[in-house]
Amino acid sequence: xxxxxxxxxxxxxxIKTLKENKKAEFEIIVDELQPYDLAKIYQDLPFKHKARFxxxxxxxxxxxxxxxxxxxxxxxxxNMLGVEKSSNVxxxxxxxxxxxxxxxxxxxxxxxxxSEMNKMESxxxxxxxxxxxxxxxxxxTNRFVWIRNYYTVREAVDKLKSFAEFAxxxxxxxxxxxxxxxxxxxxYRDLLLADPGEKIDDIMYERVxxxxxxxxxxxxxxxxxxxxxxxVPVVDEAHILVGIITVDDVIDVVIKEANEDIEKLSxxxxxxxFETKTLVAAARRLPWLILLLFIxxxxxxxxxxxxxxxxxxxxxxxxxxMIAGMTGNTGTQSLAVVVRGLISHDIDKKVVFRLxxxxxxxxxxxxxxxxxxxxxxxxxxxxNFILGMVVGCSLFFTLIIGTLAGTVIPLILYKLKIDPxxxxxxxxxxxxxxxxxxxxxxxxxxxxxxxx
Amino acid sequence: xxxxxxxxxxxxxxIKTLKENKKAEFEIIVDELQPYDLAKIYQDLPFKHKARFxxxxxxxxxxxxxxxxxxxxxxxxxNMLGVEKSSNVxxxxxxxxxxxxxxxxxxxxxxxxxSEMNKMESxxxxxxxxxxxxxxxxxxTNRFVWIRNYYTVREAVDKLKSFAEFAxxxxxxxxxxxxxxxxxxxxYRDLLLADPGEKIDDIMYERVxxxxxxxxxxxxxxxxxxxxxxxVPVVDEAHILVGIITVDDVIDVVIKEANEDIEKLSxxxxxxxFETKTLVAAARRLPWLILLLFIxxxxxxxxxxxxxxxxxxxxxxxxxxMIAGMTGNTGTQSLAVVVRGLISHDIDKKVVFRLxxxxxxxxxxxxxxxxxxxxxxxxxxxxNFILGMVVGCSLFFTLIIGTLAGTVIPLILYKLKIDPxxxxxxxxxxxxxxxxxxxxxxxxxxxxxxxx
Lengths: 452, 452
What we know:
- 2 copies of one chain form a homodimer.
- Chain A is mainly α.
- Helices cover 68% and strands 6% of the residues of chain A.
- In chain A, the strands form 2 sheets. The first copy, chain A, has a 3-stranded mixed beta sheet. Chain A has a 3-stranded mixed beta sheet with strand order 4-5-6.
- In chain A, a hairpin with a 5-residue loop joins strand 2 (172-176) and strand 3.
- In chain A, helix 17 (278-305) runs parallel beside helix 22 and helix 19 runs parallel beside helix 21.
- The longest helix of chain A is centred in the C-terminal third of the chain and has 34 residues, at 349-382.
- Chain A starts with 6 loop residues before the first helix and ends with a helix.
- The model of chain A has no long low-confidence stretch (mean pLDDT 87).
- Chains A, B: It is a multi-pass membrane protein.
- Chains A, B: The chain crosses the membrane at residues 286-303, 315-339, 360-381, 387-413, 434-451.
């Protein structure tokens, strides 16, 4: 009925059914909507209609809706629902989504929500929350259908049918043995194609790719991406199947990790988005800036050490920003290549050696080109051949140093098991300022008698 | 049999079967391997064994293997296979993978490969290649099973069984009418749960979310991510179903787009990875660097305009790198927040106004803190109160300017439909150098009589 309506038309239609208190008609519309669309409509709904909107939805759909909202909206919704209905909704939510909601609440609020829930679900979500953040254990769901290896295909299909409403994703069925250990996997397709009398043991695929509860979520994402899976099973240390991770959660991980890399590379501060409040955003960015301020003063200290040189040839100051800037820029370029490369590559000595040599070569090529260019420009501008040579030589060396710093520093951090993206662009830029000023004024001081 | 073996043990075992020419044993092992693992083994295999390895594989598995390799490896493999077998393999490859292989070849090489293929497959891949790059048409596959709306569930399952080997992904079945227009979708689960006699028309879900052939791949990724789909159907302008896009391709798109953002933000040059040759990498980075070199000279020109001021108070030079650096750093921070935010937000005037005001507030907060800090430090270091005030005031203003430049420039580019990530970190940094030097020397010149 609403098949060809736009989002706005549907919204208006829903408001009409709410105003006229037509629950049956309302339910027919809602039944046709995807959770994401329903959440959009709910978010844009005038406040006065929200209470009845929630009243009209059953707990199943409310749980789907919850999973599309952000934390604040989720809490508002629970408050509006009241204790009894909200406990029903919490029971029905996916464990991983529920865990990430509870994670950000105060201990009191968390306990009060947990106490509303039924024992089994509340234990399950508390089990998940024991795993360290950003591990497979944290993003897995326990809503999946498992089958035993001694089932027949018919028994498996029957179990599937009876749990169809319960399970999040039913594309593969993971097979466990008597001790609940993961022993195989069967796809929907396999079940459809098999003879109903066949044993699961005979049709299942035994070399199951899995992750463990403590596997880092980035590794989980890499696994799913490499194997093109729709879900991946999670086992504990005894190889017992405890959950699955679905591809939709993996996409979220990939996006989150990419954002984190960009945040770190630009030192832009942890999770600042369009909604972050001014003072919070300022507070998150300040620590880096203050650190960089002090490192920047080291550059000042270096220049003051060359005060005499500078006083003799003030023109040296004209090229300072260009040399420092260029060195910083090449450093940032190398850094970005290395940080992103580390994500998709397995690193060994050979790879590192080749990469460092490549970047050295890049530094030399870029250095020669830019040095020749700037020598000519400086000579023409200042009419001093030696000054041109000093600026050119300095740029040549600083570009090589900048490229190598941008390559080697993240690699060393990686080796020390520190996230290489911590060596952010601003940090590399500021360090390269120091290197370039030392080189520039060092060379200038050597030739000072010819410069005057 | 190989269930509990490590990758290395499997490799050795495979080499053994190749040496002893045991094809049957070889096939049993290969049958248990995922395409990704098979590709890893192939890549690490000593060259002398590769020919027989390929000889032992059937075209189906070779096609799977091809899809895991990069372009150069794919071409090597095709050369080793010879014309007849390689045409078989090309016929069996997914259209989207084949299109991206052909895309990077010379026209002659492309035509020669296409002419080897059978007419139907070659036409299909050429159809895909007509769509603009980075659109849904380019990443869709035509290997999917569709059903008619007038089928019964039994007929649908029968069709599914007969095409099971052919179709890439069988999680949803898209339903078309007599004119091949997309009219519904049925999941595996629906088929399993339905009565065999029911009509597809009665059980299908009609409000199908779809994309069109010209939809940008980023929008496709956003759609799949929002709705948590495993695949999304692609229709042409007449609403005829022409392909599907699977979630594994969507993950690749998400990773590629994130890498592109990082490349642009750091101006690190288009698609430079660990394998890129030195001169290619240097050539890709040089254009940006040369542009930045000239912009850097503008900074030099500004300083030379203030030569007199600088000659009178050389100590002013000590704080130049710090002020320029800090301004650049705040700019980069704001830039990263805006660029990533633009990806996930729908932008209107209200959002822009709020964001600019927020960043202005951040600039003021950061400015006050850092300005007070540096005034005190400069006073203590140089023993000149006015110098401390000049440096502090300058930093206050330049930090606000830097923050706003990092916010407003990408927003303007976005408004002008230019990719905002083009306003890379290095560009913002270099522009902010100019702003900060003008501010700093401007203020210093105003107070020059008190500074001396």
